[in-house]
Specification:
Elements: H1 12-20, H2 24-42, H3 49-65, H4 76-102, H5 124-130, H6 135-146, H7 151-158, H8 162-181, H9 186-190
């Protein structure tokens, strides 16, 4: 049975259960909540904004078609990012195959993100610095601090062991601190508690 309460106040998991029961409105609300966040997560792995937007749409289409397989025992965000990660890998492999056929190399993925949320400016510079890290390091930072997933949930999402995720997080934080420490405005950054850390950076 679908709860008639205000849709904006429902958790992701409540909406996912309703979507599984046939509510398109609940699924649309999930897509609205995650569209921008998923774009920010995928952008460094793809060649352009358009590619990232296309993959966001492809991810939501895949989830909508398979919503009956959603397991309410798990967080919706874990299921979402697992699907997005698999599609991104498939997309990369397709492009690499095409490029190899043309006798060229696939360009490195750019990392020119604007920030973790539309309209947020407090931690924009920090996330821009994070975007310059290697793809896996950026992804684990985003999933841990942008989406608040647990180590176990991140491991499922990116197909790595928990130990590998912990090592990636450690390296990512270390490398990010080096970038932030050498960037202009370091003193200001050190006074703020931001999304990419459980304590103020510095």
């Amino acid at each position: 049975m679908i709860d008639p309460g205000p849709i904006e106040q429902k958790t992701d998991e409540e909406l996912a259960r309703e979507a599984r029961a046939g509510s398109r409105r609940s699924f649309d609300e999930l897509a609205l909540r995650y569209k921008r966040r998923l774009f920010v997560y995928l952008r460094p792995r793809l060649g352009s904004d358009q590619d990232a937007e296309d993959l966001v749409q492809e991810t939501f289409l895949k989830l909508y078609r398979n919503i009956r397989h959603y397991d309410p025992a798990h967080r919706f965000s874990t299921w979402l990012y697992t699907s997005a990660n698999r599609l991104a890998i498939s997309s990369y492999r397709r492009k690499r195959t095409v490029a190899a056929g043309l006798g060229s190399k696939v360009a490195d993925f750019p990392a020119d993100l604007a920030g973790p949320r539309a309209g947020e400016t407090r931690s924009t510079g920090l996330w821009e610095a994070a975007g310059t890290l290697g793809g896996n390091q950026y992804r684990v930072l985003w999933l841990r601090y942008g989406e608040d997933l647990t180590i176990e949930e991140i491991a499922v999402s990116i197909g790595r062991s928990r130990l590998a995720v912990r090592l990636l997080l450690h390296r990512a934080r270390t490398n990010l601190m080096k970038r932030v420490g050498s960037a202009p405005g370091r003193a200001e950054a050190k006074t703020k508690t931001v999304a990419v850390g459980e304590t103020p950076l510095g």
